[in-house]
Amino acid sequence: MPAITSEVVYLMLIFGLMVIPRALQRFRIPAPLTSFAFGMVAAVFLVGFSQDATLALLATMGISSLFLFAGLEVRMEELRRGMWPLLSHLLARAITLTCVALLSMRYLDLSWQVSALLALALLTPSTGFILDTLSRLGLTEDERYWVTVKAVGGELLALLVLFLVLQSGSVERLAYASGAMVLMIVGMPLLFIGLGRLVLPHAPGSEFSLLVMVGLIAAYVTYQLGVYYLVGAFLAGFVARLLRQRMPLLASDENLRAIQMFASFFVPFYFFYMGMRVPSGALSWDALWWGLGMTAVVLPLRIGSIWLHRRMTGGETARGSLRVATALTPTLIFTLVLATIMRERFQVSDVLYGALLIYAGVSTLLPSLVLAKPLDFNVLVGPLPDTAHNTAVREANATDWAARAPAQAESDAGPPRATRSRRGQTHPNAG
Question: Which pTM does this prediction carry?
Fold first, then answer.
């Protein structure tokens, strides 16, 4: 029997990650959790595969493209429309983050940096993941709007706190990283505009590839600054969205859908890769009980606080507020990223790492159990965006039909038909 080559292994991996998790959706098992479990199982049989450079690259492209999409989904006009409820929500989020961090410092004997990261890991919804799955949850239009606004606002706050915490080692480091971020914020629009003038006129249709390229470069830069890939990718998408009026094709509906499809292919590799890197010490009874206890305390508080805030500020029904709060519970991606940072940079115990994995899994599973449809990272759902091409086609068809309508009506009328009376006489039909 011929040996199984690496190419065959990758083809089997692609088939397994693209087909099997989605097939298990009928049992209301979220597809990302299935991919993560596949990674844990594969680590037993494919020893050393977690160090594969190709797999790491695929995982990086997955997490970067997902946060690039999250940045593109930031609509400033929607944030301004719900500004005051959003600001009160962010104030409540800042208070809860502070309280959780202080409790972690006091009772878990953690440093303030680890405590702050732990609070972010427990309380920050994964915006890219939620936006990918939002159309499958059976929410109303108004509920989807508030889920989007709260998720985006919460992630903006979390990314700012993450940057400050990770760069707080010294004043010099914070100043250096802050200066680099300012240069990125100023230089990225100039880069997009320059590419739009020098490349796009001679390469129509290349907006998608240029956006992905800039997103990956920004993700790599922020990773080198010590704030992980997600900050740079999110910032690239956010800047591209702000330039939509000046460069409409860059963040067009077609490009947004293309980024969604791009992320839907690579994101499963991220979950698989993270599953392969779970240490054996995280698979212990202590980690399980800590994770379940953490879930039993934090999840009801999160859902209850958002429900109460919606009831006080939004005037929603109790059921509608509960649906919004439940849709915001998934923290899978953000928790995985922060748990990895805590383990690699701050050497937290495997028990705490495993507890965070349990919490992330339960928080992600909850909406699929209580809302209308199970969660999935398949983005090919709902109607296609109303693109300029589709609109032009419909207008052309309508004009053509209006021009042909009189001739068609005359043809349908035809010559006067004859009708026969009861006496056998023939009379012309008056129409």
Answer: 0.80
Strand partners, 420: 426
Domain residue spans of the chain: 64-266+284-388
CA atoms within 13 A on the CB side of 10: 9
Q: What is the pLDDT of residues 198-220, one digit of tens each?
A: 888 888 888 899 999 999 999 99
Tell me the per-residue pLDDT of 358-403, one tens digit each, with 9 for 90 and over: 999 999 988 888 875 544 444 444 444 444 444 554 555 555 545 5
Q: Could you write out the three-class secondary structure of the chain?
A: CCCCCHHHHHHHHHHHHHHHHHHHHHHCCCHHHHHHHHHHHHHHHCCCHHHCHHHHHHHHHHHHHHHHHHHHCCCHHHHHHCHHHHHHHHHHHHHHHHHHHHHHHHHCCCCHHHHHHHHHHHHCCCHHHHHHHHHHCCCCHHHHHHHHHHHHHHHHHHHHHHHHHHCCCCHHHHHHHHHHHHHHHHHHHHHHHHHHHHCHHHCCCCHHHHHHHHHHHHHHHHHHCCCHHHHHHHHHHHHHHHCCCCCCCCCCHHHHHHHHHHHHHHHHHHHHHHHHCCCHHHCCHHHHHHHHHHHHHHHHHHHHHHHHHHHHHCCCCHHHHHHHHHHCCCCHHHHHHHHHHHHHHHCCCHHHHHHHHHHHHHHHHHHHHHCCCCCCCCCCCCCCCCCHHHHHHHHHHHHHHHHHHHHHHHHHHCCCCEEECCCCCEEECCC
CATH architecture of 64-266+284-388: Up-down Bundle (1.20)
Amino acid at 19: V
pLDDT at 214: 92
Amino acid making up residue 167: Q
* Integer Cα distance of 195 and 201 in angstroms: 9
Say how far apart CA 257 and CA 114 lie, in whole Å.
Answer: 37
Rounded Cα distance, 322 and 303, in Å: 7
What Cα–Cα distance (Å) separates residue 326 from each residue in 170, 314, 394? 39, 16, 39
Q: Which residues of the chain have pLDDT under 50?
A: 1, 374-390, 393, 401, 405, 407-409, 411-413, 415-431
Of 124, 182, 348, 105, whose CA–CA distance to 174 is shortest? 182
